[in-house]
Description:
Blueprint: H1 2-14, E1 31-41, E2 47-52, E3 62-64, E4 73-74, H2 77-86, E5 90-99, E6 102-113, E7 125-127
Antiparallel strand pairs: 1-2, 1-6, 2-4, 3-7, 5-6
Amino acid sequence: MKKLLLAFVFAVILSCPCLNAQDVKPENETHTAYCELVGTLKLNAKVKVAIDYGQNARWGNNTMVDENGQALEFNSMVDAMNYMGELGWKFVQAYVVTIGNSNVYHWLLQKELSPEEAINAGIKIKKEGH
């Protein structure tokens, strides 16, 4: 009888959810980050792209730049998406807002970030007016 009781207690302890290994969070847990590309067509038919990843800034004033601080110009929003895709960003949704005679393209992107990775890794911006 003692062996049966001991086996029952042991079975209850093993089935306790507090000891379940699934409750342990992995060390390299990732989280989903989002950003928005805001593109405006320039006179030379190129697209100027600003990026918003939630930083403290006014809308549209964070222009993407190269290593020399020159504004990046893309052939199209798809060209900009290919650039961001190389940095690990994935397309989520797009919409266009027409202001006067100009279209402003908004593309929402997402990326899985490790705890060590910065949301702006690989992205250089120049705040307009600076």
